[in-house]
Each structure stands twice: as C-alpha cells, then as structure tokens.
Amino acid sequence: MELPKLPPKQKSETDLMQWMRFLNGKRREDFEKMAKKNSCFEEAYKELDKLSADEKKRLEYEARQKAIRDRDILIKTGENRGRKEIILSMIEAGLPLEQIAEIAKETLETIQELKKKMG
C-alpha cells in the first residue's frame, strides 16, 4: 500500500492504518500530534527525534539496518543453495523425479530443469 494514497481518516482505524499515518507524517507537528494521542507513537516519536538529532546515531542506525538486510540475504541464499544441493543429491540417488518434486515441494518442471543442468 502506498502511503500517499491512504484514505481519509476513518472513525475506527486499525492499528496498521494508524501506524501508516504516523510513518507518513511530513512535519514535526504531525508526529507530535499523533504522539499525544497514543503512547506507542509517543515512544516511536522520541526515538525518531533522537535519531534525527544525532548524525552519528543515525549513521549507526543505518549501518545496523544494512547489516540486518545483508544477513537476511545471506541466510536466504544459503537456504536456497542447500535446498538445491539436496534436490541434486536425490536425483543422483535415482529417486523418481515425481517423488523428488513432491518431497521438495517443487514443480516437476523445476526438477527436470535441474536434472538437465546436471548433464
């Protein structure tokens, strides 16, 4: 959902919609107004204010977020690589391709492609 396309305020907004409105704030006054209405927003606003006031902390925060994203990508890549190796091992062991597809929860076409790449 794109934040600029949020519908006008509704009487019974969900927490998600309220958070989206908070994150869509453009001016300090917007954040302060929402923080006064909700203690969670107040805490988030204080953190946001601290981060934006201190350049060093902001850079540390950005470096941490990048490290988290990099770690997540490495884990996903490793999982995919390990999954592919297991499928290739099952092919080498001579298991029927249909059975491999069922075990690996892959399409038969995907398993056949991997077998072709093996040579």
Describe the structure in your own words.
The structure is a single chain. Helix 3 (39-53) packs across helix 4 and helix 4 (55-92) packs across helix 6. By secondary structure, this protein is mostly helical. It contains six helices and no strands. The longest helix has 38 residues, at 55-92. The protein starts with 14 loop residues before the first helix and ends with a helix. The chain is elongated. It has helices at 15-23, 28-37, 39-53, 55-92, 97-104, 108-118.
**Strand elements, count:** 0
Helix/sheet category: mainly alpha
| Low-confidence regions | none
Helix run count: 6
Compressed to H and E, one letter per element, the order equals HHHHHH
Shape: elongated
Main sheet, how many strands, which sense, barrel?
none
- What is the rounded Rg? 24 Å
Strand content: under 5%
User: What does the average pLDDT come to?
Assistant: 82
Termini separation comes to 45 Å
Helical amount = over 70%
